[in-house]
Amino acid sequence: MRRALLHAVLLHAVLVAAGSHAFAAGEAERAVDEAKRRWSESPHGPMLERILPPSYSPSSLPDPDSAGAKLAIQYCVQCHNLPNPAMHQAQKWPGIVQRMVVRMQGKGNMGELMKDMMAGVRAPTEAEKASIVAYFEKHSQKPFDPKRYPDIHEPQAQSFKLACSQCHVLPDPQRYTAREWRAVVTRMEKNMEWMNRVVGSQPVRGEPQLRVEEINAYLAKHAKRG
Ligand code: HEC
Ligand code: HEC
Question: Is the CB of 148 under 6 A from ligand 1?
Answer without folding.
Answer: no
